[in-house]
Write a structure and sequence with these properties.
The structure is a homodimer. By secondary structure, chain A is an alpha/beta fold. Chain A folds into 2 domains: about 5-70, Hypothetical PUA domain-like, domain 1 (Ribosomal Protein L25, Chain P); about 80-230, Alpha/beta knot. The first copy, chain A, is about 25% helix and about 30% strand. Chain A contains 6 helices and 11 strands. Chain A has helices spanning about 20-30, 90-100, 120-135, 170-175, 195-200, 220-230; strands spanning about 5-10, 15-20, 35-40, 45-55, 60-70, 80-85, 105-110, 145-150, 160-165, 180-185, 205. A 6-stranded parallel sheet of chain A has the order 8-7-6-10-9-11. In chain A, helix 2 (about 90-100) runs parallel beside helix 3. Chains A, B: It is found in: Cytoplasm.
C-alpha cells in the first residue's frame, strides 16, 4: 500500500466518491492502484484521507476514511481587488497571492490601466492558476477569480486597505480579524486621485509600502507578505 | 528647454561630466539636445540635476547644477542572502527585491537547490536587472549582486532573519535599524535542518511567513514586503 502526499481535488467529500476526468489519468500516471491511500480536498476547507477501491482507465472509486478541516487559511476570508495588468503579470500575482492566503480575487477596471478588459480565456486560465497554486501551497480553499468590474461597482467593505504611495498609515497597525478583509492594488499607472477617493469612501484605508516606487505586480505580494509575516 | 524625469547613471557626479556609450544613444533617441536639463545618479545614493552642454553622435558633456542625496533608501543597508533558483526566478526576485530596497544580494549555494552554480553570463544579467530595477524605482543605489558562495562562507551577521516554515517568531517584532540587516531565503527544496542551524549560529533568527507553503521566489518578496509595510 502506498500513502500519497499528493492531493486530489473532488467535488464533495461524500463517504464513497466516484470520479472520472483528468484526475483519474493523473492517478494512473502515478501508478496508484486499489488499496492505496490518497489525500483529497474539496476546495472549501475540508480534506480527507481516502482509500482507492477501484481504478480503471476512466473511473476511480474511493472511500473516505477520515475527514478533517485544513487549518492553513487566514483567520478571515481575504479578497484582493486587483487592477487588470498586462501580459502574464496577473497570473504571477494570482499565483503568489494564492500562496499567501487570498481567498478571492476581484479583478477591477481602472483609469490608468494598460489593458481595458480581460478575455474569457484569460479568466479561465487565471482560475486554473489559482487552483494549481492552492494545491501547491497545500491550502484546502481554491480562491475564486471574479470577472472584472469597474471600481464603482466594488461594494463598501467592512475593512479594506489600498496600497498607495505617499501615505504614512501602515497596514499592520490597522489590521484586525473581526471580519472579512479587503485589499486593493492598482494598475501599472497607479490609481488616479479620484479612484483613491472612491476607495476611501468604500472604507479602504490608504497604506504605505515604503518610500520607493513598486511595480504593480510587486505591490500585492508585498502587501500580503506584511499580513502573513504576523504568523497567520 | 526640456526637463527630463528620466534618470541617467554616471560614474561620478563631478562638476563637468563627459560620457560616451549606450546612455548617449539613449539620450539621442529621446531627442535631448544642448540646453536640456536631465537627472543623473551615481549608484551610491547621490543624484544631481544637470544641463546638457553638448551632445553629438558618441559623446555627451553635462554640467552638474545641483547635487542632492536621494532619500529612498532603507534606514540601513539590507543584504539578501538568496539561494540559487532555477530559470528566471532569480531575476524575478532580484527585480522585486531591488524595488523593495535591498542594497546587496549575496547568492548562496545550498543543499536542496535545483541548480548547483551560476554561470558568469547569468551573473552579469542579474546585475543589469538590479540596475534597471533601481532606476525604475527611482533609487539612487544600484544593489550589488555577489557571486555565489557556500552557506558556510556567509559571515556572522549583526542582525539577520531567515524565512523558515513552522516558526512562531515574527520579523517585525525583532527588526531594528541600529546597523546592517540581513535576510536569507532558501531554494525550491528549502533549507535543510543543518543549514538552518548554521544560519542560527551566524545570528539569523528563523521567522514565520504564515502557515502556508510559499514558493522559493515568493518568500523573499513577502519578507521584504513586511519590512517596507512599516513605511521605511
Amino acid at each position: 500500500m502506498k500513502v500519497f502526499e499528493k492531493r486530489f481535488r473532488v467535488e464533495a467529500l461524500t463517504d464513497t466518491i466516484e470520479m472520472d476526468g483528468p484526475e483519474v489519468q493523473h492517478m494512473r500516471v502515478l501508478r496508484l492502484k486499489a488499496g492505496d491511500e490518497i489525500h483529497l480536498f474539496d476546495g472549501t476547507g475540508w480534506e480527507a484521507r481516502a482509500r482507492i477501491e477501484d481504478l480503471d482507465a476512466f473511473t476511480v472509486t474511493m472511500i473516505v476514511l477520515e475527514r478533517f478541516q485544513n487549518d492553513l487559511e487566514l483567520p478571515q476570508p481575504v479578497t484582493l481587488a486587483l487592477a487588470l495588468l498586462k501580459g502574464d503579470k496577473l497570473a504571477d500575482v494570482v499565483r503568489a497571492c494564492t500562496e499567501l492566503g487570498v481567498s478571492r480575487f476581484q479583478l477591477i477596471k481602472t483609469q490608468y490601466a494598460d489593458v481595458p478588459d480581460l478575455g474569457d480565456n484569460k479568466l479561465v486560465r487565471l482560475r486554473r492558476i489559482a487552483e494549481e497554486a492552492s494545491k501547491q501551497s497545500r491550502r484546502a480553499v481554491v480562491p475564486e477569480v471574479l470577472a472584472p468590474i469597474s471600481l464603482k461597482q466594488l461594494p463598501s467593505v467592512p475593512l479594506g486597505f489600498v496600497a498607495h504611495p505617499g501615505t504614512q498609515d501602515t497596514v499592520l497597525s490597522k489590521l484586525s480579524w473581526d471580519g472579512q478583509v479587503w485589499f486593493a492594488t492598482g494598475p501599472e499607472g497607479g490609481f488616479s486621485a479620484s479612484e483613491v477617493e472612491l476607495l476611501k469612501q468604500k472604507n479602504f484605508t490608504p497604506v504605505t509600502l515604503g518610500k520607493r516606487i513598486l511595480r504593480a505586480e510587486t505591490a500585492p505580494v508585498a502587501l500580503l507578505g506584511a499580513v502573513v509575516s504576523t504568523g497567520v
